[in-house]
Amino acid sequence: MPAVLVVHGGAWAIPDELAAASVDGVKVAACHGFSVLQRGGSALDAVEAAVRALEDNPVFDAGHGAVLNAEGEVELDAMIMDGRTLASGAVSSVKNIANPVSLARAVMDKSAHVILTSRGANLFAESIGMATVPTDTLVTANERKEWRRNKNYVTGVMEDFNSCLAHDTVGAVAVDSAGNVACATSTGGIRNKMVGRVGDSPIIGCGGYADNFIGAVSCTGHGESILKVTLARLILFHIEQGKTLADSSLLSLQYMGDRVRGAGGAIVVSPSGKWTATFTTERMAWAAVDHDGLWYGLNPKERLNEQLPQ
After folding, report:
1. What was the pLDDT predicted at 164?
2. What is the pLDDT of residue 167?
3. Rounded to an integer, what distance in angstroms lies between the CA atom of residue 219 and that of residue 121?
4. What pLDDT sits at residue 160?
């Protein structure tokens, strides 16, 4: 069975000055994750590797490059899920961790729990010997400047996700040569969020879901809206009803827009290797690698293709 990996760098009003770097970043991450599959690695290993690459890129709001909360602090959320067993792990409101997706993987592999939060997640990281980093190393100079400029400016949902004030999630989905699917999602949340705010990203069924019998999804957009409609599971529900991946994604995103006025995006892969990337925001940086090479896009209806780099 041909392996496939898809990544997104967040659905929001990506400004022109970040456009090229966002597209380059998702292309690099997709190729990095796909290389794991090429070496015979699992879908689970591939999505973790791809999301780690996005977390390490300061262009994206996850790990390095995370936005700041109302107190000027970094609080990170992430999840990962194995479609073969439905095993999953997640962390929320963690600090000083450069790659929260790997901490989420450790929660899945090395604990009896699914979600650990805040101090407990950091204590768990310490107990397993996971390296911590000074928080300042996760914050870009531009984010510090933007936070100071906007810290007294409260925006609504539609303004947030149709302006340059928003910043968003990263994620990956994959199917490996054995037909196993997996997903991973990671975020720094929304700038100026309340301390302790948790969005959709670490919540199973909302920020992501993976099931070998249906497919794998990673979502992005306004977290509170995604939570209200359990977006990842809603997309998979439509797929279960026999709709295509693209129709299932668009129907679910349109429902979220109609019902709770939320915008967002999603990437989906099926166990048979079909995939889609769909969004209702102005832009979403995404990339996919399959047997036909490297696909990518940023603007609505954009679907570009090139050969994989050697």
Report:
1. 40
2. 53
3. 23
4. 46
Q: Cα(139)–Cα(10) distance, rounded to whole angstroms?
A: 18
Q: Let me know if 169 is a catalytic residue.
A: yes
Distance CA 97, CA 139 (A): 12
Q: Pull the structure tokens for residue 210.
A: 């993976």
Beta strands in the chain (DSSP E): 4-12, 76-82, 88-94, 115-117, 170-175, 181-187, 208-211, 215-221, 264-269, 275-279, 283-290, 293-297, 304-306
Residues β-bridged to residue 189: none
Q: For 256-282, what is each residue's pLDDT tens digit? A: 999 999 999 999 999 999 999 999 999
Closest CA to 66 of 56, 53, 81: 56
Catalytic one of 135, 155, 169, 220: 169
Distance CA 55, CA 253 (A): 25
Give the pLDDT confidence of 102-139 residue by residue, as tens digits.
999 999 999 999 999 999 999 999 999 999 998 888 88
Residue 163 has pLDDT above 70, yes or no: no
Q: Which residues of 226-264 are buried (b: 16+ CB within 10 A; e: fewer)?
A: bbebbbbbbbbebbeeebebeebbbbbbeebbeeeebbb
Q: Which of 270, 307, 264, 271 is nearest to 286 (CA)?
A: 264
Kindly give the pairing relationship between strand 170-175 and strand 115-117. Answer: unpaired
Q: What is the pLDDT of residue 162?
A: 45
| pLDDT (mean) for 200-214 | 98
DSSP codes, 94-138: E-S-S-HHHHHHHHHHHSS-SEEEHHHHHHHHHHTT-----GGGG
Sign of CA dihedral 205, 234, 180, 24: negative
Paired tokens of 247: 């129709």
For residue 182, the 8-state DSSP code is E
The percent of the chain in helix, strand and coil, each rounded to the nearest 5, is 35, 25, 40
Of the candidates 185, 178, 179, the one whose C-alpha atom is nearest the C-alpha of residue 206 is 185
Confidence of residue 165 (pLDDT cuts 50, 70, 90): very low
